[in-house]
Amino acid sequence: MMMISTLIKSLTLFLCLALSVGFYTLVERKVLSYAQLRKGPNKAGFLGIPQPLADAMKLFTKETTKIQKSMFILYNISPVLATSIMFITWMLYNTPANQNTIIKLSIMLFIVISSLNVYTIMLSGWASNSKYALLGAIRAVAQTISYEISMALLIMSILLISLNFNMEKTSISQMPTLWMMFILPLIFSAWMITMLAETNRSPFDLAEGESELVSGFNIEYGSGEFALLFIAEYGSILFVTVLTATLMLKGSFNTINLTQMVKIMTLAFTFLWVRATFPRMRYDALMSLTWKTFLTLTICSVTMLITHNNI
User: How do the domains of the chain map onto residue ranges?
Assistant: First the structure.
């Protein structure tokens, strides 16, 4: 009975995440359309609200394309792995579906799980047996690995402030006011830019630049497999907004209240606003930013915090 109950809760959480991703994409299309002085989805139902459900129905009922020379097992398992990794990440969040889950080292587990996304991207591009997909996968892996270093050092900075590995008890706002005035804006700005690059969002979506790479590593995917990759990407974005609200904006990781929802929605809108505003960077500028700027900044912040804590 316990196994059945756990399975039902997990499926409920997955369905809620899929619905959240669907309606987040609807908000994105609306924001981008109004930024470009057009209406966006408005034909399916009232104000186009059922549009994500129509898109999901179309994708999951569409015939799956079979790539003749692809590595069949890896090609088909990669989207499932990507979605599973995103789902496991969300298991760190204490929702009604996993209220009894208490992980003392949840920050470390998040770093470990997020680093696995590289393998799903590489497998998707390589197993497709397409030069376009492989080139997109190589660029995505190089970008993700580079920005994971900055992300890990930024998280280390936060851990040196809170001296706790539990997400619920970790917050940069626990630092003295004088230090926050100088370090918080730098760390927060670097964190937001790193998260944009880590989740392959504009202006750092070099892995999926449609005009240059023909959608990148997922070019050979369609129907339900593409939908799974889509859910994995946007589910990670939503988790990042919750994590940022907790670590940087003194939010709560285990409870939902009005203040927390406003913080999460503001951060989620920021991802959309950045995509509608900024042009895509050149790839060499993208890599130069993390190795020459963020790496120096994060190492300096970690060194200052170690000195401050007399470690």
Answer: 72-310
